[in-house]
Amino acid sequence: MDPDPLLSRATAYTTLAAGTEAVAELEIKRSRFLAVLRRAGTEAEARALVEELRRSFHDARHHCSAFVLGPDRDVQRSSDDGEPAGTAGLPMLEALVLRRTGTAPGGADVTDLSDVSAVVVRWFGGTLLGAGGLVRAYSDAVSQALDGARLVRRRRQRLYRLPASHADAGRIENELRATGLTVLGTSYGAAGAELGLALPDDDAALAAAHSRVAALTGGAGVLHPVGVDWVDSPAAPPA
């Protein structure tokens, strides 16, 4: 069963930008390795990539795979797809799980990549690579794909709507964005405008946001809660 992301212990993690794909290709002793990575929120989505590439590259001998899912990364699977046990799927999974995505305040590496499905398609070149050679090839293929991937930070945030007049909506949106708050957009109707906001799932940050809104609206603006969800934001490159 796929985990419920809203019940996670984590409040943020790193993943691929929605709608993007990361690809890398290696050739080692005439064997060709094609790595394809995509974002996946469920096991069904992760496995769909395997089946898609199996159909697209039906002439290849192996379609090895690995995926990690959930903010807490509690779903991890891998498949060697006919390669010697432990030489393909596990090295691919480790390349995902151990990928450094940032630095913690104390200086430790952050490794929080998740919701990613990786498939490496191999066309055999006629020369055996040995167990060590296979481990390096499959791990390097995934790592090189990640080198070119567009990553985002996915944060659990509380969603709010903020009613405003047509005349004030643009100014309020610009000033909220300038303070670093995430404005999801503004809709305009006959009765007025409404801003959508995503605020950190943290009591202190929420209190500060309420104070900013009050200051910008002369106390007239009221934030109305509409739920909790995960929201993408650009990921800073690892320091």
TrEMBL record:
InterPro entries: Impact (IPR023582), Impact_N (IPR001498), Impact_N_sf (IPR036956), Ribosomal_Su5_D2-typ_SF (IPR020568), UPF0029_Impact_C (IPR015269)
Occurrences of domain UPF0029 (ranges): 165-205
Listed name of the protein: DUF1949 domain-containing protein
Impact N-terminal domain segment(s): 29-146
Domain of life: Bacteria
GO cellular component labels: cytoplasm
Biological processes, Gene Ontology terms: regulation of translational initiation
Similarity comment: Belongs to the IMPACT family.
